[in-house]
Structures are given as C-alpha cells and as structure tokens.
Amino acid sequence: MKEPWNIKRRSHTAALALTALLLAGAAQAACPGYSVCPAVNYPGILLSNPEAEANLAAIDATEQASLQALKKLVKFEPLFLPTLGQALVFDKTLSARKNEACALCHTPAAGFQDGISAFTPAAGIFPGTLTQRAGFRTPPSLAYSEFAPLLQFHPATESTPASFTGGLFWDARAAGLVTGNPGQDQAAFPLVDPLEMALPDPACVVRRIAIGAYASEFVAAWGSIQITWPPDTDTVCAQPNNGGPDQTPLHLSKSDRVAVNAIIGFVGLNIEEYGQSILASPFTSKYDAVQAGSAQFTQQEAAGYALFTGAAHCSMCHGLTPPEGVKTPPLFTDFSAHNTGIPHNTQVPYLTENLPDEYGYVANPAGPDFIDEGVGAFLASPLDTNREFQAQAPNFVGTFQVPTLRNVAALPAPGATRTFMHNGFFSSLPPIVHFYNTRDVLPRCTGDTGVGVTCWPAPEVAVNETTLIGNLGLSADDEANVVAFLGTLTDGYTP
C-alpha cells in the first residue's frame, strides 16, 4: 500500500509490535481496524452526545441558511463568493458517505476549530466520514489562518536562525505552490484524505457539486460544468478513498480531467474567500474593540497583554504585525514553525489503527510507534517542495506551524472543552501557559502521575526544540493574566 506522502513512518520496536499483535486478536472483532479499541466510541458519540447533536443541527441550519442566501445573490455581489464558500464548507455531500461537512471539525461556535468535548480527554482527534477512521492531528482554525502567505524560506543571518514562514496547515503542506494560494491548496486535501472526507477522486467533488443543491449558483459563479461522466461515477464516488495507488479511479478524458482540476481550484478559492470574509473572520473581539477605542481591558487583561508582548515571549511568534503583504488587523501568528516540545499524545486512536478496517484500509502501519515529524516530514517529501526546501528538512523535524490565537478561548458552550496543539495533548489554556513557562524547569515524568504539576513528559520529537520558551519565570498570577488576555481574542464581543 502506498503510504501517505506527508508523514514519515518509523518501524515498530519489538515490544510494541508484540503488544499490538497480542491485543489485535482479542480486539479485532469488537473494533475492526484497531489493535486496541479506542476510549471513545466514535459512531456512538456522533449519534448520541448532546454536544455532537447540537453541532450537527447547527451545521444543518447553517447549510440551509447559506443556500437561501445564495438564491438571493446575483453573480457579482461582493458576498457571493464567500457565501458560496460557506455552502461548500457546510455541505455534507462532499464526503464519501455524505455524512460529514468540513464544519464538523471546523465548528463556528468554537472559533472554526473542534467543538465536541467528548473527543477531548480520551482522543483529541475528530473522526472522518468513516467514523472508525481518525487522523493524528487536530483541525486548525478555518478562520484567520486563510490569510496565510506563500511558504517561504529565510536563510539564517547573524542575528536570526533559518526559518520558514507561510503555507497552511500544521506542517505547512499547503504551500501555495500548486495554485499560487495556500488556502486554495489546502481545500483539496481533506476532501480526498482517507481519514477525512475520503472521496476517492477529486472528480467526485465536482460530481457532487454538479448534482447538488447549489449547482446553478456554482455555475453562475464559474461557468457550466461540462464533464462527460462515466456510467459508474456515483458508484465509484460512494466508495471511500483507501489510499491506494490509483487516486483517479473515475476514467475521464484528458480534457475532462483538466476541467476537474480547474473546478477544484475554484472550490478552494471559494473556501478561502469564506475563511477570509466577515462570515468567518470578522475581527470582532474585545481586543479589536480596545484597539478601536470602544472598550478597555480589565486590570487582569491589561497585565496579561503586557506579559504577552513582554516577559511571556508570546508575541515573538504570535505576532501583532501581520506577515508581509497581508493587510489585516493582527492575526496573532507569524506563520512560522517551531518545535515547542509538546509531549506525545498516547490517547490518539490513530496509534492503534494498524489493522485493516471494513474496506481493508490500514491507516497507520507503524501503529503505536508512529511519530509525527511535522514540517520536517513535509519538506523531505518529493511533493510540493524544491531541493532548497528538502535540504532544510532535518532542521525542521518536529516543528509545527504557529496557529492563530484568535478565538483560541472560544468554546461551543459553557463548560465545554476543546483540543489544543497539533496532537490534542492539552484540553484547556491554563496548562499550555504553564507548560510554556515551566517546560525546562520541572523534571521529566517517569509515569502518568504528576503531569503538569511536578513533571512534564518528554517531547514527542526531541530535536530542534525552541529555546524561546521553557523557563519564563512567570508566577501563577502571571500565567492567569496571560490566559485572561487570550480570552479577549474571542469574536462576538459587544462593547
């Protein structure tokens, strides 16, 4: 089986392989596709959990609202493309089983990030259209991150180390080298990823749009979809992508394949326009109101802001100055990549997905020994990179793109939890700030007790760790003040 191109596998250790093998025989009947049953029943949670039900209902309601809005718009009105993008983001038919929209993982009420607490403590990662398949990374924000510039390499100088900025997603895989736009590049990945929407062919995206509820509006924006569809098109598109060597199982003519690729570019542009629009990125936080002079920070928030831009070193990566060429208020990211030493999240179900599922797909041949090497693995891959980038791969192993902090404190409901960091290791903000403050102060944990109190686990990847954090010397009050300031970055504030 051809392995996913954007990650680097490591072989099993003998102990892990033996453990997985012993457990596989006992668990395979109960949990096909898993060496060990996950702590979370993914299908059950999506069907019976109140938060999940509310999330799914909100997706349905927003989908209907976006379709109604589309019907009222004409071709060249300013909000036409973002609203069409919204229809795409909330369209469940763009998944193999027609049961999952992009908005399931990018929940508007949670700042367009994950929004179902049940996945947080036991898993950290959302499932795909096949609920037994889950990936190994949390969904980054759809909002604000869509302003990402092209991936660029900056050689080292006397005062600064070599760095990459730009691109989109945790490993910067959407570099903008395909369409010239990172947001457009990124839109194509989840739709065909076996662990996400899992459509088996990009042409299936076009087919689902062509026969869908907003086909005429899409045509009004981009022109007619003139594709000669094979008789088995809908049958093929109903089969999930199993990661095999044939990623274009629909047998189209050369001209039709060119047309499909062009339309996929339009889809990506629509989604990017939605992500950048006031529908998703409204810049309506308390921070924005303070900058406009219509609100004031509390004493604690002001103290946190001073720490954020000073002793806590936050603004060194979550900058207040947008990247070059980006004309927006602060995005609270410079789109650089760092290894902050985040520990391995052993609860991620992906680590046990080393058995064939009902379709014969093995998501993770490496099993529990899988290590996510982030930007370094992407740079080392032959796709979407160049030789200069590839040469830098060892220096960026274990690094991940700095996410926007806008809406970082947003929760879908009071008391809800969310996942944080690329692997979902944290489920709230205070432990993250404490980790950044004390990573190099507290000793390494030797077991499961005392995590975050008396010790921290070892990093998932021990090379290329940043020294910008780890021993900040902040007090408990300082940490609380930083968290209070982060709360001012949530949209929807009314002065």
Question: What do these coordinates show?
Answer:
It is a single chain. With about 500 residues, the chain is mainly α. About 35% of the residues lie in helices and about 0% in strands. It has a single domain, classed as Cytochrome c-like domain (Cytochrome Bc1 Complex, Chain D, domain 2, Orthogonal Bundle), CATH 1.10.760.10. It has 16 helices and 4 strands. A hairpin with an 8-residue loop joins strand 1 and strand 2. The longest helix is centred in the first third of the chain and has 23 residues, at about 50-70. Mean pLDDT is about 90; it is low at about 1-30.
Brief rundown of the structure:
It is built from 16 helices and four strands. It is mostly helical and 495 residues long.
Describe the SSE topology.
Layout: H1 14-27, H2 42-48, H3 50-72, H4 80-89, H5 102-105, E1 152-154, E2 163-165, H6 182-192, H7 202-210, H8 215-222, H9 233-237, H10 254-276, H11 286-291, H12 299-308, E3 337-338, H13 374-380, H14 387-391, E4 400-401, H15 429-438, H16 476-486
Antiparallel strand pairs: 1-2, 3-4
Helix pairs in contact: 2-3, 3-4, 4-10, 6-10, 7-10, 12-16, 15-16
CATH class: Mainly Alpha
- Termini separation comes to 56 Å
Shape estimate = globular
Strand order of the largest sheet: 1-2
Spans of at least 5 consecutive residues whose pLDDT stays below 50 are: 1-29
Oligomer: single chain
Main beta-sheet strand count, sense and barrel state: 2 strands, antiparallel
Structural class: mainly alpha
Instruction: Supply the number of helical segments.
Output: 16
Count of β-strands: 4
Order of helices and strands: HHHHHEEHHHHHHHEHHEHH
CATH architecture label name: Orthogonal Bundle
The pLDDT mean sits at: 89
How much strand content do the residues show? under 5%
CATH-defined fold name: Cytochrome Bc1 Complex, Chain D, domain 2
CATH homologous superfamily caption: Cytochrome c-like domain
Q: Measured on Cα atoms, how large is the radius of gyration? A: 22 Å
Number of domains: 1
Helix content: 25-40%
